[in-house]
TrEMBL record:
<dbReference type="Pfam" id="PF01071">
    <property type="entry name" value="GARS_A"/>
</dbReference>
<keyword id="KW-0067">ATP-binding</keyword>
<dbReference type="GO" id="GO:0006189">
    <property type="term" value="P:'de novo' IMP biosynthetic process"/>
</dbReference>
<dbReference type="InterPro" id="IPR020560">
    <property type="entry name" value="PRibGlycinamide_synth_C-dom"/>
</dbReference>
<dbReference type="InterPro" id="IPR011761">
    <property type="entry name" value="ATP-grasp"/>
</dbReference>
<dbReference type="InterPro" id="IPR013815">
    <property type="entry name" value="ATP_grasp_subdomain_1"/>
</dbReference>
<dbReference type="InterPro" id="IPR020561">
    <property type="entry name" value="PRibGlycinamid_synth_ATP-grasp"/>
</dbReference>
<dbReference type="InterPro" id="IPR016185">
    <property type="entry name" value="PreATP-grasp_dom_sf"/>
</dbReference>
<dbReference type="GO" id="GO:0004637">
    <property type="term" value="F:phosphoribosylamine-glycine ligase activity"/>
</dbReference>
<dbReference type="GO" id="GO:0009113">
    <property type="term" value="P:purine nucleobase biosynthetic process"/>
</dbReference>
<keyword id="KW-0547">Nucleotide-binding</keyword>
<feature type="domain" description="ATP-grasp">
    <location>
        <begin position="114"/>
        <end position="332"/>
    </location>
</feature>
<dbReference type="InterPro" id="IPR000115">
    <property type="entry name" value="PRibGlycinamide_synth"/>
</dbReference>
<keyword id="KW-0436">Ligase</keyword>
<dbReference type="InterPro" id="IPR037123">
    <property type="entry name" value="PRibGlycinamide_synth_C_sf"/>
</dbReference>
<dbReference type="GO" id="GO:0046872">
    <property type="term" value="F:metal ion binding"/>
</dbReference>
<keyword id="KW-0658">Purine biosynthesis</keyword>
Length: 477
């Protein structure tokens, strides 16, 4: 059976390995914008063919589909989904794991997503205002006295674009003006007519639940948490994720079974709402980027229309059942036959990026990375290749996160493995990475307990999700 994978990052490397590990003897074909060495290894192992081309081009992808006639496809990144590559597969009669361009709007447009949650009264929703004028948004920020989160209205890669401003009444006008200026910086990244979304700010531990659906059956995967900030202890600019954790079992140490089930229900209700709004069945991954807050308990920060990266590297290696077959069943609308088995042991992922990422990708491009894969595997880790291209037998960075190391074991053991395996990676330029990932579990457990006490108290009083109406003058909005 032939499988066509679209994408070129560490997420797709992890999915490629799951396909070639399957007992179903899949032949893997792939399309990437550059030659990812990890994907290449798995394509060659399965006796498939690797194509280098534009993963966002409908015409190019259609040409490859007609050339190889795959039995099903898998779309990894968000941009091909936004550009209708899922639609191309279906127009060609090929089942695919990945929603249509209409379905992927749940990720592409934060305004559409928030409106959907309010229309269908889905729990975990936040109050928000959307602005098509950066001047109006800046005026709102300068006048409003509460805590807010300022975001681009559309998906722009999730790297360094979300700015949180705590604009309490006692803050100086200079700080308010600085926050207002950030509106223009964010708005310039957005192509849509609606530029800025401003939300009420919430706080608490973040986590992600990925759910597979074939439009009828819903299969929740193990929870994961990613670490967005570039530098140690959660400081520095936001990135696509400098590492992640998952486990033990289906959970995280700071999220209960009840919270897992509530989160699953939120994601399921949201997917059913998408189906109603688009008049088509959503097929593929839908992922809730969540926060445990005192307002709602499980609260939606945003949705992905695909698996997260680096969360995939923490989740997929822990699935002990045949994940390749589960993906096939999803594409073919037979997900009710799937059986998901998960290792109890956690996983910790550490991402490596060249100096310059995420703020100056010109500096981050063109560096040579050296890696001793055999030593890494001998010492209990695996590696997934991200933004690193195989050129003339050298690994050349393309400007983003280059590698992801993953280790499985209890958190302390996994971190020790990563520390050892890090020594087998070097670069012609400095690499940035975080060694604190997987080490601050107790702090997060304590934070979750504080939040849990608050939202449980609200729940007992019947005021879950209830807060003061949010506007500069205290009126309704």
């Amino acid at each position: 059976m032939k499988v066509l994978l679209i994408g070129d990052g560490a997420r797709e490397n992890a999915l490629a390995k799951a396909i070639t590990k399957s007992s179903n003897d899949y032949t893997l074909y792939a399309i990437s914008s550059f030659i990812n060495p990890g994907i290449k290894e798995n394509v060659e192992k399965s006796r498939g063919t690797y194509f280098r081309g534009d993963i966002n081009s409908k015409d190019y992808v259609k040409t490859i589909i007609r050339k190889i006639s795959p039995d099903f496809g898998i779309i990894g990144p968000e941009d091909p989904l936004f550009n209708g590559i899922g639609d191309v597969f279906r127009e060609e009669g090929i089942p695919v794991v990945g929603p249509s361009s209409k379905g992927s709007t749940i990720e592409k447009s934060k305004v559409w997503m928030r409106n959907l949650m309010w229309k269908y009264k889905i729990p975990g929703r936040l109050r928000f205002k959307a602005f098509d004028s950066m001047q109006a948004a800046a005026k709102f920020v300068s006048e409003y006295g509460g805590s807010i989160a300022i975001k681009p209205s559309e998906q722009v890669g999730g790297k360094g674009v979300k700015i949180v401003a705590d604009l309490q009444a006692y803050l100086s006008q200079d700080k308010r003006s600085a926050a207002s200026r950030s509106v223009e910086e964010i708005g310039n990244l957005v192509k849509d007519e609606i530029k800025i979304i401003i939300e009420e700010k919430v706080d608490g531990p973040e986590y992600t639940l990925h759910v597979l659906t074939d439009g009828y059956t819903y299969l929740p995967l193990p929870l994961a948490q990613d670490y967005k900030h570039a530098y140690q202890d959660g400081i520095g600019p936001e990135t696509g994720g400098m590492g992640s954790i998952s486990g033990p079992g289906k959970y995280l140490p700071f999220i209960t079974e009840e919270e897992y089930e509530k989160t699953f229900e939120i994601v399921k209700q949201s997917t059913e709402a998408i189906n109603k709004e688009t008049d088509e069945n959503y097929i593929g991954f839908i992922s809730g980027q969540m926060m445990l807050t005192d307002l709602w308990g499980p609260t939606v920060i945003e949705f992905y229309s695909r698996m997260g990266d680096p969360e995939t590297a923490a989740i997929v290696p822990r699935i002990s059942s045949d994940f390749g077959e589960i993906l096939e069943l999803t594409a073919e609308k037979r997900l009710n036959r799937a059986k998901l088995e998960v290792m109890d042991e956690p996983a910790v992922v550490r991402a490596f990026a060249p100096l310059g990422y995420p703020l100056n990708k010109d500096i981050a491009k063109g560096n040579i990375i050296s890696i001793n894969i055999n030593k890494i595997r001998e010492n209990g880790c695996d590696v997934f290749f991200g933004a690193v291209s195989l050129e003339n037998n050298q690994l050349i960075t393309t400007g983003s996160r280059a590698l992801e190391l993953v280790a499985i074991g209890d958190y302390q053991t996994a971190v020790k493995k990563l520390d050892i395996c890090t020594s087998f990676i070097s670069s012609s330029s400095k690499l940035i990475y975080r060694t604190d990932i997987g080490r601050s579990i107790e702090d997060q457990i304590e934070k979750a307990e504080i939040v849990r006490y608050s939202y449980k108290n609200r729940e007992r009083k019947g005021i879950l999700g209830v807060s003061a109406d949010w506007s500069p003058n205290g009126g309704l909005w």
